Task: inverse folding
């Protein structure tokens, strides 16, 4: 049975037991052992795989070499026939036959290596999959257990310390009220600053036409008036 | 287990615990007794629908309590744990505010 299924079953029966028993200690040990075994078999399979792949490459090279030899000897046999050297051509043909025998053996070996490579890769994949499965199952089990253990210890602590656990609505109201208080305090601080702080003095100066801002405005207006007068009574387009 | 209180939100502490596989942050929202009985199913439905949208946290139930949880890898750096705690607290407060209509 999968761990999630087991958790669902436990949830339906007795929640109290969950803290200890999603997966009993024995089952966890079995999973952990299986993970160790799967890791070992992956290691072994990887070693074998490297060896077989090396052999596969070797045999591919050998096949290529043999094919070239066959072609070369066949060409030589044709040349011998061209020169009416029947006997020699026969001997070369025998050599070609022998080479083809070796070639066919090599090809068989090569095919076997290829099959082995596929099998070993499948084996590694399957073992890795098994490890992932078991690790996930152990993770679900242990997480469920730790959540329930945490909740139990929190409940016990709160129980001992009297009921200082507010209900959700009370908590929310308190937090909100605190936020409002903070917002009110900040608004009040802004207002105080507006009335008595630096900002207030700056504003009063500006209103009285004193200071940087007032000067800039006056200077700009003077400039505009001067341009207006320089342009004369009837403005012309430039 | 570690209890973290965020200033101004002492009523909503975050509990941090770890198992062999992950660090888990938990915030307890409310318990069964606080849910309006006639709206219980509707609340469950809403929580499920809300779940994918809540950033980095998930709604859940532990025993008779509704919780918001966030999980981190065991080797998560402290800043990440702190960020998860902060997000969890924001989410919990939002959730309380948004779902208080289901509570007594």
Result:
């Amino acid at each position: 049975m999968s761990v999630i299924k087991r958790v669902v079953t436990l949830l339906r029966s007795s929640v109290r037991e969950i803290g200890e028993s999603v997966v009993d200690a024995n089952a966890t040990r079995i999973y952990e052992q299986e993970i160790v075994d799967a890791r070992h078999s992956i290691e072994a399979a990887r070693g074998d795989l490297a060896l077989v792949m090396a052999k596969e490459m070797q045999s591919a090279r050998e096949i290529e070499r043999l094919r070239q030899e066959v072609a070369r000897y066949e060409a030589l046999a044709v040349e011998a026939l061209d020169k009416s050297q029947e006997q020699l051509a026969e001997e070369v043909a025998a050599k070609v036959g022998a080479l083809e025998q070796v070639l066919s053996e090599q090809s068989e070996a090569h095919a076997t290596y290829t099959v082995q490579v596929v099998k070993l890769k499948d084996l590694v994949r399957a073992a890795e999959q098994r490890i992932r499965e078991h690790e996930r199952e152990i993770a679900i089990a242990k997480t469920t257990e730790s959540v329930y253990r945490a909740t139990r210890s929190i409940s016990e602590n709160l129980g001992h310390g009297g009921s200082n656990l507010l209900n959700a609505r009370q908590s929310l109201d308190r937090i909100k009220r605190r936020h409002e208080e903070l917002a009110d305090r900040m608004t009040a601080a802004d207002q105080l600053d507006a009335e008595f702080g630096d900002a207030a003095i700056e504003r009063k100066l500006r209103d009285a036409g004193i200071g940087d801002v007032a000067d800039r405005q006056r200077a700009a207006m003077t400039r505009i008036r001067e341009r207006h007068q320089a342009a004369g009574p009837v403005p012309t387009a430039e | 287990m570690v209890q973290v209180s965020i200033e101004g939100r002492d009523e909503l502490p975050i509990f941090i615990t770890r198992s062999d596989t992950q660090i888990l942050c938990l915030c307890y929202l409310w318990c069964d007794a606080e849910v309006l009985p006639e709206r219980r199913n509707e609340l469950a439905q809403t929580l499920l629908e809300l779940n994918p949208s809540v950033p980095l946290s998930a709604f859940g139930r532990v025993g008779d309590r509704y919780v918001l949880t966030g999980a981190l890898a065991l080797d998560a750096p402290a800043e990440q744990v702190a960020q998860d705690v902060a997000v969890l607290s924001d989410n919990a407060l939002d959730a309380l505010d948004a779902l208080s209509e289901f509570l007594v």
Notes: Residues 23 and 141 of chain A are 6 Å apart (CA to CA).
